[in-house]
Amino acid sequence: MPELTSTLPALLMVAGLGYLLGSVPFGMVMARAFGLGDLRAIGSGNIGATNVLRTGNKLAALLTLILDAGKGGLAVLIARAAVGEDAAQLAGAAAFMGHLFPVWLGFKGGKGVATFLGTLLALAWPVGLAACATWAVMAAALRYSSLSALVAAALSPVWMVVLGFPQMSVLALFLAALIFARHEANIKRLMVGSEPRIGKKG
Hints:
Oligomer: single chain
Shape: globular
Strand content: under 5%
Helix content: 55-70%
Number of domains: 1
Number of strands: 0
Structural class: mainly alpha
């Protein structure tokens, strides 16, 4: 945990703004911009980049990935520059929660993988790179986005400690736990062999 040096009003402001930024459903925005229809009625119904990819539009999926990751990273960087390190961690957590439970979509959001990775990259870039590499290796080997995300999330607290950021390990553990909770249905499908692979159209 970081040392708390910021005032309570500053932290509350950071949390609120981080949540609102994280709540922007870029997958829905891209689906509408590219005329792909209602993303919630496609494939898994998720609003993230993997489900956008199931429409067959790789550009829309890439933009969704970048923007969803960027909102987590941006929340961290702004809070760190304006307030401090404690605020940066809080902003990252708030942006992640915003993606999972966006006010604009009745608190029914995505699974948070891209936002998780973007947040890690901004908080501690070596850890973010390690998590991204973990996801990429697993995805290339097994072609399951969900399994890749679960392994990357599970290892993120370990990477925090190994790479010299133990003060962020509690946050990484919290985010990883939420990743697992949001992937409950995916875990069940992985166990019975019915989980769709990366690139499969919905």
